[in-house]
Amino acid sequence: MGRLKDKIALVTGGSQSLGGEMCKRFKEEGATVVSLDLITPTGFEADFFELNVTDAEKEFTRKGAQIRTNCIAPGYINTSILDTVPEKIIQSMKDSNPMKRLGEPIEIANAALFLASDEASYINGHVLAVNGGMRI
Ligand SMILES: NC(=O)c1ccc[n+]([C@@H]2O[C@H](COP(=O)([O-])OP(=O)(O)OC[C@H]3O[C@@H](n4cnc5c(N)ncnc54)[C@H](O)[C@@H]3O)[C@@H](O)[C@H]2O)c1
Q1: According to the model, what pLDDT value does residue 41 have?
Q2: How far apart (Å, rounded) are the C-alpha atoms in residues 35 and 78?
């Protein structure tokens, strides 16, 4: 608790799935959370703004600001994005992964939490693969 105290988190696509889980997790750790999404969800606490993040990116980029920029490269994660994928394909995703399962949104949210926290204060420009050891 409190790893993001006094921080403001802007979560793009924060209404559901991976972004939604990040909003919940960041909130638990004390951040003020603002979700920017095309849709407004119900069910958890954050400020939501309906906004196309293509515009937001321009809006929030300030020259010279000391910000760290990191990236998460997820493997196959159990969200609604996989709803239309046939079960046979889902099974092959699981079978081909060393962990023999899909990832869960909380596992991406926890990685994002680490990168957003002061624990990652000197990590900048990094791509963190969170994929159970999957090889692409
Ligand atoms: N779930 C996976 O297995 C997986 C794996 C690798 C990468 N990804 C990527 O991670 C991202 C999130 O995945 P997810 O499973 O949570 O997807 P999702 O479709 O469940 O959620 C995406 C959210 O982003 C919002 N959104 C889309 N375009 C937007 C825009 N222009 N402006 C504002 N909001 C916008 C949507 O309304 C939605 O709420 C996607 O880009 C996806 O391609 C997902």
Answers
A1: 73
A2: 21
